[in-house]
Each structure stands twice: as C-alpha cells, then as structure tokens.
Write a structure and sequence with these properties.
7 strands; Rossmann fold; 5 helices
C-alpha cells in the first residue's frame, strides 16, 4: 500500500478544488431536500462541501455529496455529532455565530430555500464579497438566482 493510510481526504491538493458552502433551513421541505441533495451530488466532483452540519438542507447536501464520493465538512453550532453524512465535524459551541465560520470557509455559497439563519449567512457572505447563488431563496440584491442545481454549481465553480 502506498501513501498515507490515515489520510481522510481522497483528494490531492489542487488549487482548482473549491470549498463550497451549502446553506438552508434545518427544517427543509421535500423539494428543498431534493434540490440540496442534487447540489451536493454536483459539488462532489468539484470541491469540498461545507455546511452548518445539521439536518434539512445541510443533511441533504451532505448526503448527495457523500453518495457521489465527495468530502463533507460540518461546522456545528453546538457539541453534537451533526448529521450522519459528515466526514469532518467541527464542534464550535458558538450557536448561530458559527454562521460566520461557514461562510468564511467558502469560496462560494449556494443557498437553498432557507429561513432567518440562511438570511444571516447570505448577509455575511455578501458583506465579505463571497459570491452567493440561490435556489428559491431570499430575493436580495447580490444573490445570483439560479433555476437549477446544475446552474448554481456551474456558476459557483466558474473560473476554477
């Protein structure tokens, strides 16, 4: 066997490999869950998926990514283990303040639906000049609205 058997990531260091945050409500609708799962599946071959690590949109995106060989990172608001589709769990104990860490960890953000927590993450991303691509999410200046998961992921990864 060659290489480091303890290496967690199957990916080689590659500057074209992005960290993409997927944000959305922990209590997602069936449509939002399916959309986030598709987004995660598409991110799997293009980058590392970063999220808040809980249920709903976050869980669905991680599920889609893991089922397609992607790496998932959850930045958890408390000290729990997060959703079952996380490869890396970062327990913060910061509550909603962890939203800043999620966005600051990303090269781009994809918002799927969402409530007030999602709104705060969008605002933080826009303030930090991190591009935000939205799928049926808040209608805010600066959010690039996309019609499909394919469009959102293509736009989020363009130039990489």
């Amino acid at each position: 066997m060659t290489g480091n058997p303890l290496r967690l990531s199957p990916f080689k260091k590659n500057h074209s490999f992005m960290q993409i945050a997927v944000i959305g409500a922990a209590d997602a609708s069936a449509e939002e869950y399916a959309t986030a799962c598709a987004v995660g599946a598409l991110i799997a071959s293009r980058g590392t998926l970063v999220c808040g690590g809980l249920g709903g949109v976050m869980e669905a995106a991680c599920k889609g990514a893991q089922e397609n060989g992607g790496l998932t990172v959850g930045i958890i608001p408390d000290t729990s283990d997060g959703n079952p589709y996380l490869d890396v769990v970062i327990r913060t104990g910061l509550g909603h303040a962890r939203n800043v860490l999620v966005v600051q960890s990303a090269d781009a953000v994809i918002a799927v639906g969402g409530s007030h927590g999602t709104l705060s993450e969008i605002a933080i991303a826009l303030k930090m000049k991190c591009p935000v691509y939205g799928l049926k999410t808040w209608d805010i200046a600066g959010v690039v609205h996309c019609a499909t998961p394919i469009e959102a992921v293509k736009r989020a990864t363009s130039g990489y």
